[in-house]
Amino acid sequence: MNGNDDPTRNALWNPVFLADLRRDLLRFAELQLRDQSAAEDTVQEALTAAFSGQDRFTGRAALKTWVFAILKNKIVDTLRHRQRTAPITSLIPDDEEEGDDFAVLFNPGHHWNPADRPQAWGDPETTFAQQQFWVVFETCLTRLPENTARVFMMREFLGLETLDICLELALTTNHCHVILHRARMGLRLCLEQRWFTPENPTC
Amino acid sequence: MLTCQQVTRLLSEAQDRKLRLKEKLPLKLHLLMCAGCDNFHQQMDFLRQASRRYSVAPPNADDAE
């Protein structure tokens, strides 16, 4: 630390910034690990690593992105470790009946019921700009079954390739695709109902 | 002829692997004729974009300014 001449460089030393950042990191880690103490440990490791390399960024947004990149690597490590000690496969129900939970959306000919037909969601950027949307997004992720959510987040948040996830979790490729399909079906349905329906006053 | 239910599965898999030509053509044809599935297709892209955005650094109120 060398004084306050460069507020960017010292952003991690700013207690308010650090508290906010830590809160965001924790929420992100908890969403994926669904275990508070594991999330706290992982965030602690990420912050420790961030403190030891904090000269490499410019600007707070870049700092936040960088710390999140570190956190994502730590979450991958934690998930790998967990997979070795308590494999996810033992937790996944065996019913492979695909789309099972969502069959009600379709008629007997397997086409959309008129009331359940997906709607146009408009310009994504308009939605992303609304802070409240991200609260709903998190809520919808939380409502997915735990393992479904985990596989989805490994794919979409941690950016792992589907084949690697299958290998990692010892799942067949088909099972992986079934789980990801369920996750996306659940997430889109939740967002459509909670965010995009006309009753939603913010739309 | 693909059903809408099959199309949702294919559109989800398209996010994870390259579809084969013999999967792509019937899918394209279905999407041209089915507004619901076409919307679903765009929703899949939306989910990917939202996830990318969220995981780069979750947006929050103090970033909004």
Secondary-structure map:
The complex is a heterodimer of chains A (203) and B (65).
Chain A: H1 15-33, H2 36-51, H3 60-85, H4 124-128, H5 131-143, H6 146-156, H7 162-169, H8 173-196
Chain B: H1 4-13, H2 21-33, H3 35-56
Structure characterization notes:
The complex is a heterodimer of chains A (203) and B (65). Mean pLDDT of chain A is 84; it is low at 1-5. Helices cover 60% and strands 0% of the residues of chain A. Chain A has helices at residues 15-33, 36-51, 60-85, 124-128, 131-143, 146-156, 162-169, 173-196. Chain A has eight helices and no strands. Chain A is an all-alpha fold and 203 residues long. In chain A, 30% of the residues are buried. Chain B has 65 residues and is mostly helical. In chain B, 69% of the residues lie in helices and 0% in strands. Chain B contains three helices and no strands. Chain B has helices at residues 4-13, 21-33, 35-56. The radius of gyration of chain B is 15 Å and the shape is elongated.
Helix content of chain A: 55-70%
CATH evolutionary superfamily of the largest domain in chain A? Winged helix-like DNA-binding domain superfamily/Winged helix DNA-binding domain
Largest sheet of chain A: none
What share of the residues of chain B does DSSP label as strand, in percent?
Answer: under 5%
Tally of extended strands of chain B? 0
The most extensive interface between chains reads:
A-B, 45 and 40 residues
Structural class of chain A: mainly alpha
Radius of gyration of chain B: 15 Å
List SSEs of chain B in N-to-C order.
HHH
Element-by-element helix/strand order of chain A: HHHHHHHH
Report the CATH architecture of the largest domain in chain A. Orthogonal Bundle
Oligomeric form of this entry?
heterodimer
Largest sheet geometry of chain B: none
Helix run count of chain B: 3
Strand content of chain A: under 5%
- Overall CATH class of the largest domain in chain A: Mainly Alpha
The portion of residues assigned to helices of chain B is 55-70%
Number of domains of chain A: 2
What is the total tally of β strands of chain A? 0
Unreliable parts of chain A: 1-5
